[in-house]
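Let's practice the habit of predicting before peeking. Look at the sequence and jot down your guess about where helices and strands might fall. Then scroll down.
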Amino acid sequence: MIQVKDQIYHLGLRDWEIRSFHGHELSTFHGSSYNSYLIKDEKTVLVDVVWTPHSKEFISILENEVGIDNIDFIIINHSEPDHSGALAEIMERRPDIPIYCSVKGVETIRKQFHKDWNFRAVKTGDTINIGMYELVFVDMTMIHWPDSMMTFVKGPNVLLSNDAFGQHLAGASIFEDELDQCMVWHEAIKYYANILTPFAPLIRKKIDEILAMNLPIEMIAPSHGAIWRKEPLRIVEKYVQWSDNYNEGYVTIVYDTMYNATKKMAGAIARGLESRGIKSKQFNISATDMNELMTELFKAKGIIIGSCTVNNGPLRNIAAILAEIKGHKLKNKVGAAFGSYGWSGEAHKKIHKELEEAGIKVVIEPISVKYQPDGGELEACFNFGREFADHLK
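Done guessing? Here is the structure:
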């Protein structure tokens, strides 16, 4: 048990081994953590628990450090199993203990565990006095589940933010200011890009609502990754930026290739961009982690995607990233398509259409090459890059 601030303690677990999350949808190269918090006031309050596979270890820590019989109530800010999984074992021992959660949280927890426990539904602005401190609840609907909420501990002024402002990261310290800053911030934007991007309009609105509550936030303690205790509003400011049609000005070129024809085209397009002063990054999708790539697409101003044609369409990984782009609802991006083919040649046309349907502003017609590109065709790809660059200025 690690002290976070006066009478607030970290009871969570650091998972050093995990390398994927949400099934196998999200890569976690630096592990993750399941941050549970204990508030020791006149009332002893447990805020969030841990993922089901770690329940027994967590229960052991809870019994040794606190004693389950000494807990007055539990707050579940979000019912996803990585935050609520150990709840079942606690409730086996204390089936009467009150559980505070959102209205949607009551519904979701019941459906997850098929139990009708002692639920107490709360909404934004509701408060509970626990002695010296007061707890203030803030609804966070659809950031990123319908039941999500935050709990602000008034007194020590700690925001227990659950999934918001988190990172999938297991570190030598639980505090952000004691960790490698490049790693923390990369994992923070990767987390945002891959999980929260679809909810950008809601995030901006919710942050404005929270700021209007004038909560004197001195620390932000999420349920994954490091706790923000040094100028914690820095991560809030980043969320404001990231939710506002964010980009870093460069172009991300994504391709898949069978015999390097499409790869050669990608290189020529990149050289054309560079000739116009536009920076770019190239990614062979088959050799790139999908979540790292999604982060690069989130940060890009321009997105250019290419594939050779197989079975009358793009290669499977290109089809997958196009679905991801559509699902994440990327904003303020311009795009284009390219590709090579042998006899039919539909891939570049389908990519063009998919980008348009995903809300990307496709600014030029796709370019294609049959079999291997010759010098003239590579020059055409170079000019394609130059023309695309003109739409970024």
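How did you do? The longest helix spans residues 181-196.
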